[in-house]
Amino acid sequence: MAAGVPRRRRTAVLLAVAVLLLAGPVGCAGAGREKGRTTTVTVGTFGVFGYRQAGLYAEYERLHPGVRIREEVVERNDTYYPQLLTRLAAGRGLADVQALEVGNVHELAAERGEKFEDLSRAPGVRRSDWLPWKWAQATTPDGRTIGLGTDIGPLAVCYRKDLFRRAGLPTGREEVGRLWAGDWRAYLAAGRAYRRHAPAGTVFTDSAAGLYNAAVHAHAERYYDRAGHPLLTNGPAVRSSWDLAVRAARDGLTARLRQFEKNWDQAFANGRFATVACPPWMLGYMQEKSGPAGRGRWDVAAAPRPASWGGSFLAVPKAARHRKEAVDLAVWLTAPAQQARLFERQGSFPSTPASYAMPQLARARNPYFGDAPIGPLFAAAARGAPTLVFGPREQQIGAAFTDVGIPQVEQQGRSPRAAWAAARREIENAVDE
Amino acid sequence: MTATSPATPTTPAAPTTGTLPQDPPASRGARLHRWDVRWGPYALIAPFFLFFAVFTLLPLLYTGWASLHRIELTAPERAEWAGLHHYARLLRNPLFWNALRNTLVIGVLSTVPQLLTALALAHLLHSRLRAATFWRVALLTPYATSVAAATLVFSLLYGRDHGLVNWVLGALGAGPVDWQNGTWSARLAVSSIVVWRWTGYNALLYLAAMQAVPDELYESAELDGASRTRQFLHVTVPSLRPTILFTVVVSTIGALQLFGEPLLFGGAGGQKGGASHQFQTLGLFLYEQGWFTYHLGRACAVAWTMFLLLLLIATGHGLARRLLRKDG
Question: How many angstroms away from the CA of B21 is the closest CA of chain A?
Answer without folding.
Answer: 32
